[in-house]
Design brief:
- The structure is a single chain.
- About 25% of the residues are buried.
- Strand 6 and strand 7 form a beta hairpin.
- The chain has four helices and seven strands; from the N terminus they run E-E-H-H-E-E-H-E-H-E-E.
- With about 170 residues, the chain is an alpha+beta fold.
- The chain folds into two domains: about 35 residues, no CATH class; about 120 residues, Cytidine Deaminase, domain 2 (3-Layer(aba) Sandwich), CATH 3.40.140.10.
Length: about 170
């Protein structure tokens, strides 16, 4: 696998509405990275390891200045059906409605989910509210035979897995 080296000595360029190139700002670079990861993990792609899941979610959720709660909906073989950013919040919280997650899982005919959210503060540790929400979601999804495989918290370049920590 090749290594990508990014030199910030030479700015990345983007084309504006008039066709002229100008230096990209941080938000444009992050959006381009999200689009690249979206192309890499298309519908039907299998998540073969916890590291692959964390890499995908770091690329999708790192850099937001507010909390975003997202769900990976998967089939019985843990292939991606859809990635959905379901709830957007403030700098330190997002209101999550388990009913809406269950409805979307049923709509997509998902057999399993991985839920995730970011911590803009940079602290990857799960809060008490994160733990309580995880249990509520797990119970609600179990009622309709959808397995919750993990809850991943993204804090910048670090991702914390509830499953790896035995919190699920």
């Amino acid at each position: 696998m090749s290594q990508l080296t990014l030199s910030l000595d030479t700015p990345l360029m983007v084309r504006d509405g008039r066709g002229r190139y100008r230096p990209a700002d941080a938000e444009q670079i992050l959006e381009a990275a999200r689009q690249v990861i979206e192309q890499k993990m298309q519908r039907g792609a299998a998540f073969t390891s916890p590291a692959a899941v964390k890499d995908y979610l770091r690329a999708k959720l790192a850099g937001f200045e507010h909390e975003v709660f997202a769900v990976l909906f998967m089939d019985t073989r843990h292939r991606l059906i859809d990635y959905v950013e379901m709830f957007h919040g403030t700098i330190d919280s997002a209101e999550v409605h388990p009913r809406e997650v269950v409805k979307q899982a049923l709509r997509l005919n998902a057999a399993a989910v991985i839920v995730s959210h970011n911590h803009p503060s940079g602290n990857p540790e799960p809060s008490g509210a994160d733990r309580a929400l995880t249990q509520q979601l797990k119970q609600a999804l179990a009622l309709v035979d959808v397995r919750m495989l993990d809850h991943v918290i993204v804090a910048g370049a670090v991702a914390t897995s509830f499953a790896e920590r035995g919190l699920l």
